[in-house]
């Protein structure tokens, strides 16, 4: 039976190839490109460019960021970015991931939060998703349980707990796992599945070989360290990898007081400019002057902004913070505005018929007097 099935499969494949070879040239759909998209037949389809240059964020999107539009200041957002990248780096070390996977996760973390806000998305959940996604991209996958367990341990160590408790596989763990899976899909959607990252690790070594400085292990290691530290900043979403490599070599040479060719400047050979080099160096050196971000303080700041956004949304809908309708939107109506029942006539109101205030005996057979009752209008 298996031999017959294989023979039938071979015959069908041969007939398919023969039929494709017999198709005339006129039957092939006419495809061409124009400025608006790709013309296939009589319809124009839009083009999708997946290149590394598209992953760089333009200057107009750097400020204001979505987090700033939600009320978060630049200092707090920078601390959140640094803390998220530190968590990714520490989790990668505990998970024994290669350095390139940790670098990819940090770059994806920066890219995502230039499209979404820290107020609306938990940076810890997104960091877990970036680690899991980067491990798949760099062909070193890890289990969800291991990633969540490592982040649980790191969160306790950041809060200064000496006796760390183990992760319990309860409903909270299942909810966290589902949130990480959804966050990973959201990252892919926001980035348009363009998750390729070009790292300057090999570029640094290649440029030092051109400069004949590759034998200086101190210079190579210092430039490598500056490059790893700059992953916590936004330079990897603003500049090309070649420019970042030149800036790290420049910064390492200045720190070690090693002269490099300056007539002309050596980085001009690799397409970098002096302005870009200085911008990357200043941004990297600012990391060493900042205080260590406080985990609990940042969570409280994000929670405050989240609560203020929810109150603003409820106020726009005419609701109180507890969800009840606001009285100011009901036209001044209040249940306590009328102290008495509408069936009771006030004595202070002047009426032309004063005898209407005196009680009147109703006659059961008199329909005329019954019609004068206020209950019947």
From TrEMBL:
Chief location of this protein within or outside the cell: nucleus
UniProt biased composition (Polar residues): 366-377
Molecular function as annotated in GO: cyclin-dependent protein serine/threonine kinase regulator activity
InterPro entries assigned to the protein according to its UniProt record, in alphabetical order: Cyclin-like_dom (IPR013763), Cyclin-like_sf (IPR036915), Cyclin/Ssn8 (IPR043198), Cyclin_C-dom (IPR004367), Cyclin_N (IPR006671)
TM segment ranges: none
One Gene Ontology term, aspect cellular component: nuclear speck
Residue ranges of every copy of the Cyclin C-terminal domain listed in the record: 198-313
Family: Belongs to the cyclin family. Cyclin L subfamily.
Location(s) in or outside the cell: Nucleus speckle; Nucleus, Nucleoplasm
UniProt entry tagged with the keyword Metal-binding: no
PANTHER family: CYCLIN
Signal peptide start-end: 1-27
Record's protein name: Cyclin L1a
Domain Cyclin-like: 86-189, 202-286
Region (Disordered): 317-377
Entry-linked CDD domains: CYCLIN_CCNL1_rpt2
UniProt KW keywords: Cyclin, Nucleus, Repeat, Signal, Transcription, Transcription regulation
Biological process, per Gene Ontology: regulation of transcription by RNA polymerase II
Protein species of origin: Oncorhynchus kisutch
């Amino acid at each position: 039976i298996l031999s017959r099935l294989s023979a039938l499969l071979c015959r069908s494949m041969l007939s398919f190839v023969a039929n494709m070879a017999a198709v005339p040239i006129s039957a092939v759909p006419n495809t061409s490109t124009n400025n608006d998209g790709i013309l296939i037949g009589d319809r124009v389809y839009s083009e999708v460019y997946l290149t590394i240059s598209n992953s760089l964020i333009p200057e107009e999107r750097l400020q204001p960021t979505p987090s700033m539009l939600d009320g978060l200041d630049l200092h707090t957002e920078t601390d959140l970015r640094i803390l998220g990248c530190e968590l990714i780096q520490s989790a990668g070390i505990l998970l024994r991931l290669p350095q390139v996977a940790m670098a990819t996760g940090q770059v994806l973390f920066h890219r995502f939060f230039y499209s979404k806000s820290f107020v609306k998305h938990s940076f810890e959940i997104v960091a877990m998703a970036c680690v899991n996604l980067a491990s798949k991209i760099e062909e070193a996958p890890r289990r969800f349980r291991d990633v969540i367990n490592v982040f649980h341990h790191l969160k306790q160590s950041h809060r200064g707990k000496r006796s760390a408790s183990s992760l319990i596989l309860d409903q909270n763990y299942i909810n966290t796992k589902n949130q990480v899976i959804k966050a990973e899909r959201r990252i892919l959607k926001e980035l348009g599945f363009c998750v390729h990252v070009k790292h300057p690790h090999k570029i640094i070594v290649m440029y030092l070989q051109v400069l004949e400085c590759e034998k200086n292990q101190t210079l190579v290691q210092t430039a490598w360290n500056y490059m790893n530290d700059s992953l916590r900043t936004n330079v990897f979403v603003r500049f090309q990898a070649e420019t970042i490599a030149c800036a790290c070599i420049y910064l390492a040479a200045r720190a070690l007081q090693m002269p490099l060719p300056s007539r002309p400047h050596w980085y001009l050979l690799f397409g970098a400019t002096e302005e870009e080099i200085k911008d990357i160096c200043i941004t990297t050196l600012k990391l060493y002057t900042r205080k260590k971000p406080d985990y609990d303080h940042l969570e409280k700041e994000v929670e405050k902004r989240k609560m203020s956004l929810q109150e603003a949304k409820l106020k726009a809908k005419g609701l109180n913070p507890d969800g009840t309708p606001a009285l100011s939107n009901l036209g001044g109506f209040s249940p306590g505005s009328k102290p008495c029942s509408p069936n009771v006539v006030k004595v202070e109101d002047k009426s032309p018929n004063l005898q209407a205030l005196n009680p009147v005996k109703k006659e059961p057979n008199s329909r005329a007097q019954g019609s004068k009752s206020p209950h019947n209008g």
